[in-house]
Amino acid sequence: MSPDILRSRRTLPLPLLLLMSAITFMAILCELVPSGLLPVMARGMHVQLTQAGQLIGIYALASAVCGLPLVSLTVACNRKTLLLFLLSGFSLSNFIVAWAPDFTVALVGRALGGVCAGTLWPMITAYGMTLAPVTAQGRAVTIIMGGITAGMAVGVPFLTFIGNYYGYRAAILILACLILLIAVLCFFYLPSVAGEKKAAANSPWTMLKNRGVLLVVLLTFLAVGANYGVYTFITDVVRDLGYPGVNQAQLLFGIGSIISVCLAIKLIDRYLPVLLIGIYVTGILVFLGFAQLGQIYLLDAGFLLWGISFGSLSSIFQTATSKQVSSGVAVANALQSASFNFSIMFGSFGAGKLLEQSNSKIMLYAAAVLLISGLLIALVNRRKMA
User: Within this chain, do residues 141 and 279 fall inside the same structural domain, yes or no?
Assistant: First the structure.
């Protein structure tokens, strides 16, 4: 079925959007699964744990650095063809890591995966928006990006269990094969969508001069840096709070993330500015609450609320970015995605440095300051987000 026919319908093409959410499910597994298996991978590759951490860093760096130029170069490519090429790259990346004879080859495989991720994240939402009615494009983005939440809640723990029990090679091989299966389904079921002709309107330089896009890039950097910085060291937060355990915290966080996605699907097309401001308000309350309060039932509520604030970050900011441009959505989203990835690195590094100097309370206050800054900027510019 052609994209024009799909767009003319009043209802969303749910099966196609769910297939696209399966892609983001796999993409987030490619990014996060090595984090849970890092000790196992370090032993298997005969390197120190700190050196094995480069497998995470090189993926994020390749994604952040290569995303914008590659999205710009491929803006005219057929969306389906490009997606199939990227899925093949993800699968090859994981096959390389799974069969790597040494650490250097594994780094090459991870770098390839990062390059594919930097190109995929901006284009998958732009592709999905072409299949949805104009009045429901935010919901389409939320459904597609909902695969991230499902991947973090279900996929990562499952493959971490497989990796710890059967070895990291088995877990990563399973991931590589599942991606190939998704690629086959995409080949048969996703519609072909032409790319955009290269023009000044969809060039990176035009996006860099678009004040609305730059505003969302800044808001992304502040919100993602605060949230991912704290989440990277959730074990330290749980320990310093005297909370029963990280598994319970992650469970409540995951439930909150699922609630967040459900709320966004319902509200994002009508109340985008409210949702965006809500990210900051909720995050501020949670982090200041963690820093000040110690009652267990309040901490339970805090982890749940944090998940609600966190779960739709990607959907809300990518939808906000798309509203700032009339063409070149993928290029604009690539700029936002680069901010997202650099912010993860900045947040993790900054939070780690604060923990070295003190305890998690200082880190929580610093995260709250970032969110307060973002909240003030969002309130002043709320009309631009509508």
Answer: no
Does residue 195 form part of some domain?
Answer: no
Is there a single domain that holds both residue 206 and residue 178? no
> Residue range 128-143: average pLDDT?
88
Q: What is the pLDDT of residue 104?
A: 94
Verify that 96 and 71 share a domain, yes or no.
yes
Q: What's the total number of domains in the chain?
A: 2
For 295-323, the pLDDT digits (tens) are 666 888 899 999 999 888 888 998 888 88
Provide the residue range defining the domain that includes 311: 200-385
Report the CATH number that the domain containing residue 119 is assigned in CATH: 1.20.1250.20
How far is 37 from 168, CA to CA, in rounded Å?
7
What is this structure's pTM?
0.83
The 3-state secondary structure of the chain reads: CCHHHHHHCCCCCHHHHHHHHHHHHHHHHHHHHHHHCHHHHHHHHCCCHHHHCHHHHHHHHHHHHHHHHHHHHCCCCCHHHHHHHHHHHHHHHHHHHHHCCCHHHHHHHHHHHHHHHHHHHHHHHHHHHCCCCHHHHHHHHHHHHHHHHHHHHHHHHHHHHHHHHHCHHHHHHHHHHHHHHHHHHHHHHCCCCCCCCCCHHHCHHHHHCCHHHHHHHHHHHHHHHHHHHHHHCHHHHHHHHCCCCHHHHHHHHHHHHHHHHHHHHHHCCCCHHHHHHHHHHHHHHHHHHHHHCCCHHHHHHHHHHHHHHHCCHHHHHHHHHHCCCCCCHHHHHHHHHHHHHHHHHHHHHHHHHHHHHCCHHHHHHHHHHHHHHHHHHHHHCHHHHC
Instruction: Say which residue, 54 or 232, is predicted with more confidence.
Output: 54
Q: Are residues 159 and 253 in the same domain?
A: no
User: Do residue 99 and residue 239 come from a single domain?
Assistant: no
Same domain, 171 and 207: no
Does the residue 140 lie in any domain? yes
Q: Are residues 185 and 207 in the same domain?
A: no
Confidence of residue 27 (pLDDT cuts 50, 70, 90): very high
Indicate if 272 and 232 belong to the same structural domain.
yes
194 in any annotated domain: no
pLDDT band at 7 (very low <50, low <70, confident <90, very high): low
